[in-house]
Every structure is written in structure tokens, then in C-alpha cells.
Amino acid sequence: MNPKKKSKYDVIILGAGIAGLICGTFLAKNGKKVLIIEQHNIPGGYCTSFKRKGFIFDAAVHHIGGCGKWSVVGRCLKELDININFLQLDPMDSINFPSFSVDVPAEIDDYVDLLKKRFPSESEKLSSFFKEFIGLYRATFSAERNKMLIKYQDLTYKEMLDIFFTNEQLKMVLSAQWGYIGSPPHEVSAIGMCQMLVNYLKDGAFFPVGGTQIFTDAIAQKFIDYDGQIMLSSRANNLLTEGNITKGVTTEKGETFSADIFVSNIDPRQTFFCLMEENAVDDSYLRKIETMKESVSFFLLYLGLDSKVDLKGLKRGFYHTSNNISFSDNGWFYISVPTNVDSCLAPDKKQIISVVVSLKDSYDDIEDWVAFKDKMKKYTICYLENFIPNIQDHIEVIDAATPKTLYRYTLNSKGAAYGWAVTVDQTWSNRLQHTTPFKNLFLAGHWTNPGPGICAVVSSGWRVANMVLNN
Ligand SMILES: Cc1cc2nc3c(=O)[nH]c(=O)nc-3n(C[C@H](O)[C@H](O)[C@H](O)COP(=O)(O)OP(=O)(O)OC[C@H]3O[C@@H](n4cnc5c(N)ncnc54)[C@H](O)[C@@H]3O)c2cc1C
């Protein structure tokens, strides 16, 4: 990845997250001279892996939706001639509450049948709900403001569920995976939840063999094969503008590059408040960004365990700590055993447990991050002891990440996992658009449309590439 640097490019992309990489690869494939500038020493943003004592840990992303050949990621990879070996997760997930649990099958029809058997009095309503939900999902792919989108654009997911169901336990089951989008059912937009959930239920959840870095590296390699240039360990420091035109970018190391078009795959707060001169940006646009709220962040625990502990029975999925999903005391753990899916992630039949933990503490209230990390490690291991009482005796590697860690590696404000929170007022037409007040500056990634998650940011990067090519 040693580029022969030019001073002028057709397109410069800030950030080698998945949206930046996909956008860059489409542009490079179409003959554009593209430079991607990335602050970290590896590409991928949240879609990266790290190695400790032979264990390969995925830093954040656990699985990717829509990798089948007819779905968004699958089609995109085919267009770019990228081959990645995926394993489809089956069951897709498991949902666990203190009083009951449900395994979510890999096929959506099997899931609907399972729910109908479990909630026979809601059988007809389940058919109408899933018909509507899938219709809404399809509508999100249309360029026009379809009537389905208009119907649901102002509703939270809870409000949508209340239209169809009265059974509280069924509503809990259908809401239990909200952690994948970051806002609880009474806050998350119905459209946002639909995009995420139907994508996983209908188009499948997939794991790239070898870990998520394999997925990222395959895209980055294709970008390079198409003559794209990527500068790692290079932080963009300034965006130079004249009127409503972006002229150039300077890096922390003092290099300056110019281009006809710029794409920002980084946090818009950084793009417009930190990288640009004061007064360079339209005031009303800045005010809009200022009032928007970022999504949640998480605590993550990564454990490398010996081969003796039996983890076959530990189900991958959400473990809610309360039976009431709507209340703020509902915390959850997302537990996975990646070595149950791909044993090559650990040496000598050893195993990995990875846990994502929802947080009540707000970023700005945490003063001592070292103490916070320590407290959260103990809390999470204590929870795992419910399933593996002697887990402490089997740990060979332990690492952890706090919102501060997530910020450090990606510069997403407060370690936001999903860009802006996916609330009604920040989704769909209310999210930041790809275009900006600058004629030649576009936004791609989870801070813009269609939203967070790898499948969505693949779509975002692809869309922006098409906008640039048609510009
Ligand atoms: C804990 C966690 C678990 C998740 N699990 C999943 C999952 O299982 N499945 C899923 O689909 N999604 C998951 N997500 C969400 C998903 O990871 C993100 O929505 C997605 O990866 C965002 O991609 P992106 O391209 O928008 O940007 P990012 O991944 O945020 O990448 C932005 C890039 O820009 C770089 N950058 C920032 N500032 C600068 C600068 N000034 N100069 C140069 N470079 C810069 C960063 O270093 C980074 O590489 C998870 C997120 C988290 C945090």
C-alpha cells in the first residue's frame, strides 16, 4: 500500500471505512484517479480485526447482512469482481430474556411459522405485519417517495408494532434485536428498524471466513488493483474551500492534495467543524449538524480461551437483563462465540468469546476511562459466569474497548457505533443527504443515507460513486 503520490486526483476520499472503500473501488474501476486518506494504519474503520497471541478478534462488526448473490452486498461484490468466502449464520440469532428465549431461524418464512406456533392468536396479524414490513423494506430501495415510506416515516418502531399487535411478549421478541441499530423500540424509527431487521431476516446474516478484516482487505486490494491509491496512517487535517467549492486537503504530515471531487466518509462534525475554516460553511447547515444526536456507543470484551472449556451450548445472540424492553433499565449483552462459526480464528482448537455491552453511562460523564474499563470488564465476566461458572480459569487473552477506544480508532464522535441515532427525526429524508452545501463534496457512510451497518454503508458508498460518475 505504498502509493506513488500525485498532487492532483480526480477524487479524494477521506476515510477508508467500508463506505469509502466501496465508493473508491467503483470510481477507480471506472477510470477515475482516486486517493483514499486514512488516519489508522489499517483500512476498514469499524470493520477491522486485531490479533493477540494467535487469536483473531473482530474489533466491532460481528456479521454482515445481505451477502447472498441477489442482495446488496452480494451484488456489489459481484460488480467489483471481489470474491469473499462467507458462512451464513444459522440460526440467524437467539433472543434471550430472563423469562423466555427464542432462536431466530436463518429463513424468514421459518421464523414467521415459529412465531405463529408460539403466538397462535396473533397468527393472522403476523402474516399482515411481515407482508407490510417486507413491503416497507422494498420501498426503501426505490428512489421516489413511495407511499409506504410516507406512511411510516413519522412512526417509531414501537408505534408500528402497536398498530399490529397487543401481545406484549410478541412485541418484545420482534424488538429484541434493537441493539443492532442502537435505539430502543420507542425511539428507533420504524423505517430504520425495518431496514436493519428485514435485511438480516430476509437476506441473511453472514460471517466472512477468517474475520471481518478479510472482507475489508479484499475490497482494499481490489481498489489498489484498479490503480487506486490509499494512504494509511495519514490524518486529514484541513479541507480547503473557496466559496462553495472544495479545493484541497492537507494532512497532519503537512502534505496537500487537490481534486475535482471530494467524498467524506468521516464524521460530519469533524468534516464541517474541525476540518474547515470558520465561516466556510453555510450557517443553517452547521446548525442542523449541531442539533443532531449521535447514536450509542458500547463496551466490548474480547476473550481468548483455552480448548478445554465447552462453549458449544452458549448461543450467539442478545441477552436482555429485564423483561421490559421499553424501560431504560433494560440493559443487554450481545454474546458471540466466533470460533463456533470459524474455528480458524483461534490456534490449537482454542476459542473466542466476544461480548458487546449496552451502556447507561454517557460519554461526557465518564472521567476515569481506565477505571471504567476495569469496572466493565468485571461486570461482563461476572455476567458470563452465569453460563460458564469457571470461565476465569480458562482465559488466556483478555482485551476490551470502551467508547473512548472506538473514538480513538475511527474518530466517530463519542465512539458512536452507528453514526447519527436512528430516530424518526434523523432517518431517511431527515438524515444528512449525500450532497452538501459544497458542489463537489459528497458524504458517504453511516452518518448519511441509508444508515448504519455494513450492508447500508456498502449501499451508501455505491450510490455516491454513481452520483460522482454522473456529476
Ligand atoms: C461495536 C460495534 C458493533 C457493530 N456490529 C456490526 C455488525 O455486526 N454488523 C454490521 O453490519 N454493522 C455493525 N456495526 C456498525 C458498522 O460497523 C458501522 O455502521 C459501519 O462500519 C460504518 O462504516 P463507515 O464506512 O460509515 O465508517 P467507519 O467504519 O466509521 O470508518 C470511518 C473511517 O474514517 C477514518 N477517519 C476518520 N477521521 C479521519 C481523518 N480526519 N482523516 C483520515 N481518516 C479518518 C477512520 O479511521 C475510519 O477508518 C457495529 C458497530 C460497532 C461500533
From TrEMBL:
GO terms for molecular function: oxidoreductase activity. Pfam families: Amino_oxidase. It comes from the Bacteria. SUPFAM superfamilies: FAD/NAD(P)-binding domain (SSF51905). Keywords: FAD, Flavoprotein, NAD, NADP, Signal. Residues 18-469 form the Amine oxidase domain. This is Putative phytoene dehydrogenase. The lineage of its organism: Bacteria, Pseudomonadati, Planctomycetota, Candidatus Brocadiia, Candidatus Brocadiales.
